[in-house]
């Protein structure tokens, strides 16, 4: 235990004393959050978004679908539930949802686009099917800002880089410099060494994530409908999962250049296809399925459900279980393939 504490302390102090890396891990996500908040705060998007579910008729049958100023998004019934679409209307993510199965439509009476959409619909109701034939249901709800939606992705991306490069790259450097070979001659076991590296990096990344979230929340006041404890739980699991993934890269590789290239090869697709900066809704189904292979996807989905939908532990249980399973799988692979030299 004394050896374990000594290794945790040594690795943590090594990180803290590296001022460049220390401040980069703190300032980079702060700059991104504030930058995107400023860039997308004007809300001057003039495009209306209308969700469609059920058997959608043609524009000839339903002339409202031919309005050029509106973006119509079709949702498959087996992929998107009616309740989730209603939530999107409540949070102003969609201006209207038309349900062709229930013959009803939903609008947010507090949304600035609701009245305009009603006028556009009435102007196209002369012939054929029109909104007058559907039951109108008005909803209310607070709008979700882009920065509210973005912050879990930014924090998750920072966690990913910090975990993979903070563990994988460092251990590869130790191996290249002969540090691991010298440790092999000591009573330190490989499991003790790996756990010490994981513990140190976990404490660093968790503390950094909490500081970044708290610091930006003071000024931007993020929407938080769920439990802070549950958000901390899924964050902790995601950090452990990403650290375990980094250990796989560190298990045998001796070249820092090769390790860096391989980690970049997995991090950038993960950032692009995990929904960090944009939603995967509307993308090909195969792409959405591939994204489920990434731990970052499950963290971001779970964190957004907690923050923006007030999800409880049962709602995010799939994300928690998947992250736990991935962590155990990565640890088994890393432990079976790890070499000192």
UniProtKB/TrEMBL annotation:
Q: Does the keyword Transmembrane helix apply?
A: yes
- Which subcellular locations apply to this protein? Cell membrane; Membrane
The UniProt record lists the ABC transmembrane type-2 domain at 114-341
Residue ranges annotated as transmembrane are: 21-40, 149-172, 202-222, 228-250, 262-280, 316-338
> Where does the record place a coiled coil?
none
> Major location, coarse class?
membrane
Topology of this chain in the membrane: Multi-pass membrane protein
Q: Which domain of life is it from?
A: Bacteria
Keywords (alphabetical) are: Cell membrane, Membrane, Transmembrane, Transmembrane helix, Transport
Task: Return the Pfam families for the record.
Answer: ABC2_membrane
Please spell out the taxonomic lineage of the organism that makes this protein. Answer: Bacteria, Pseudomonadati, Spirochaetota, Spirochaetia, Spirochaetales
Q: What is the protein name for this chain? A: Transport permease protein
